[in-house]
Amino acid sequence: PTPPVFITLETFTVNLQPDPDEKFLQLDISLQVKTPEEEAMLKGQMPAIRDRILLLLSSKQASQINTLEGKQALSKELLDEINKPLTEHGKPLKVKGVFFTSFVIQ
Questions:
Q1: Whether residue 90 has pLDDT greater than 90
Q2: DSSP designation for 18
Q3: pLDDT in tens, 2-46
Q4: pLDDT-derived band of residue 89, with 50, 70 and 90 as boundaries?
Q5: 50 membership: H or E segment, kind and range
Q6: How far apart are CA 23 and CA 64, in angstroms?
Q7: Cα–Cα distance measured from residue 9 to residue 30, given in angstroms and rounded to the nearest whole number
Q8: Rounded alpha-carbon distances, angstroms, from residue 30 to 19, 92, 103
Q9: For the chain, how are helix, strand and coil distributed in percent, rounded to 5?
Q10: What is the spatial distance between Cα 87 and Cα 4, in angstroms, rounded to a whole number?
Q11: Among the four residues 50, 59, 98, 105, which has the most C-beta atoms within 10 Å?
Q12: CB of 11 closer than 8 Å to CB of 60
């Protein structure tokens, strides 16, 4: 078996929804795929993938994502969102895992 391939994304910084105070999230993410071919396909779609991630992250409140359970739920939501087909008739992407390498709420 071949070892998994990890893709490190550029840092995300987003404003979170008021809760009741204004907060922001700074997040580093790595994505796991199975093959270098899947890595190349994913990198080719990176603007669309980053857009999906930014929209999801900015819809959250700090209280939703500051616990272990909240972070695990966010990871699953990100995986589901990233793997949606990029076009109406497109194939889903094959990201196997979403890993947080830095997670700061201020």
A1: no
A2: P
A3: 888 999 999 999 999 998 899 999 999 999 999 898 899 899 989
A4: low
A5: helix 46-57
A6: 12
A7: 6
A8: 27, 18, 12
A9: 40, 25, 35
A10: 26
A11: 98
A12: no
Beta strand spans in the chain (E): 5-8, 12-15, 24-33, 97-105
Q: Which amino acid belongs to residue 4? A: P
Dist CA 105 CA 14 (whole Å): 10
Which of 26-30, 31-35, 67-71, 85-89 shows the lowest per-residue confidence on average (mean pLDDT)? 85-89
At residue 85, what are phi and psi to the nearest 5 degrees? Answer: -55, 145
Contact predicate 93/45, CB 8 Å: yes
- For 66, counting Cβ atoms within 10 Å of its Cβ (0-12 exposed, 13-18 middle, 19+ buried), the class is middle
